[in-house]
TrEMBL record:
Pathway: Cofactor biosynthesis; nicotinate biosynthesis; nicotinate from nicotinamide: step 1/1. Belongs to the isochorismatase family. Its EC number is 3.5.1.19. This is Nicotinamidase. One of its GO terms (biological process) is pyridine nucleotide biosynthetic process.
Length: 205
């Protein structure tokens, strides 16, 4: 098991992000067995869960004339518009049934404020509204965060960037993540390396 100052952060393992879901990440389901195998090696595990109201401002359906993956200006700046996904209380928003959720000690629901999208586990997209995860980790004495889940370029990478900015040592487990597009993943990798994030595979833990 890793040290007690380490945390595994499992990002958005929900059916809507899996093949066949509302906003599928290619091979998103491939991370499930990798993450389940990682969990017994950690004494501290937290997860995030996208949890949107049905009329969330980041949904293209709420912007007449816009299509998914267009952009729009919201109160905090430019926002990618998504297909409706992870709507509160729907099966697609649940933690994936194949995930060993019994080992998860804290679940952070994000994106539940209608007017603000939320990629990071630590801060919503206005970059001011916190989720409470930072306070929880400080209370637990966590100093190193291992990131796994979906999707590279967006929620995993924003979470890793914010963790690094907040002073944690950050490790991204590459084979426990998948990206929406190769371009988004490459851009995320450049941002994370600039922040000092370390990249490893699950076999080295």
């Amino acid at each position: 098991m890793t040290g007690e100052n380490n945390l595994l952060l499992v990002v958005d393992l929900q059916p809507d992000f899996m093949p066949g879901g509302a906003l599928p990440v290619p091979e998103g389901d491939a991370v499930l067995p990798v993450i389940n195998a990682l969990m017994p090696r950690f004494g501290n595990i937290a997860a995030t869960q996208d949890w949107h109201p049905a009329d969330h401002a980041s949904f293209a359906s709420q912007h007449p004339g816009k299509a998914p993956f267009d952009t729009a200006m919201l109160s905090y700046g430019e926002q990618v518009l998504w297909p409706d996904h992870c709507v509160q209380g729907t099966p697609g928003a649940a933690l994936h049934p194949a995930l060993n959720a019994d080992r998860i000690q804290m679940v952070i629901r994000k994106g539940f404020r209608r007017a603000i999208d939320s990629y990071s586990a630590f801060r919503e997209n206005d970059r001011r509204t916190g989720t409470g995860l930072h306070g929880y980790l400080r209370e637990r004495g966590i100093t190193r965060v291992f990131i796994a889940g979906l999707a590279r370029g967006y929620c995993t990478d924003f979470s890793a960037e914010d963790a690094a900015e907040l002073g944690y040592e950050v490790v991204l487990v590459e084979d426990a993540c998948r990206g929406i597009t190769p371009e988004a993943t490459a851009a995320g990798t450049a941002r994370l390396r600039a922040r000092g994030v370390r990249f490893i595979t699950s076999t080295s833990i």
